[in-house]
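Protein Record: Sequence and Backbone Structure Tokens
======================================================
Tokens: labelled as protein backbone structure tokens, with as many entries as the chain has residues.
Task: work out the structure tokens from the sequence, keeping to the layout shown below.
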Amino acid sequence: MLSTPLYTCPPPYREGEGYSMRGACMSYCSMMTDIHRQPLYSHVTAVMWRRCLSIRNQFCDAVVQSGMLTWEQMVSAACRYCVGATKKGGVIFWQIDKEGRVHDGKVMYYQPDCHRCKDKEHRPTWVSAILKHRDPFPNVPHAISHCFFGTHLLSHTDTVCVVEAEKTAFVLSERYPQYIWLAAGGLGEVQPDKFRPLQGHRVIMMPDTDPDGTAFRRWNEAAQVVMQSVFWENSPPIHVSAFLELNATSDQKRRKIDLLDYVLEMKSE
């Protein structure tokens, strides 16, 4: 059962509507406050929501500084995925479902080279966890339902690519815009219920690679479970791509690269 949403979001920004990138981002963020006022948490207000929507975070800076995207591409992707920012510079990857309901936000911190900070102080966390920590008696359900990052972008005709990392979906959405890019957010975050909104779509799962093929094997097993589920009847078979398993070098598998890493490393050669 889905939890009550934080807010309901307007349709995602699409290019070609007569807006500059900067103006589109500002306009989009202002639109995000024009939504119903039934938050999941009593702490969340329209003011908090508006302030959280921002490209002023370490991740957006690093994506541009590292050369992964141009500034214009970064703003376009930020509008597409509705990313936010914390006061300390962390990025908030909001999880928004197909109906535009915000389930939660994943907070992450990045270094200038666009690699994630891995020290104890900057471990990934959730907006729901932060709100619970601030108030000993919060109005927060015990179980928060999550969805794939980018689920709100689904339409009826798109081919959907599911990767593990939000960063990968964010960047590849600009490099390969013919696909809708979703992110599971973790190796084990491919529970069957998260695939329900993907019914009827052509789905390609693109797991990371590793020396013993664990990621590919686990995602292939997850795909089999989904395809055997009643809700997946009449939907196309899910394809689990073996591209990295077949093309990554031994060194790349040792480093457990993902599709974005592979694309960037091929470009630099």
Notes: Strands lie at 84-85, 91-96, 102-108, 125-126, 159-163, 180-183, 202-205, 239-240. The CA atoms of residues 70 and 170 lie 13 Å apart. DSSP finds ten helices and eight strands in the chain.
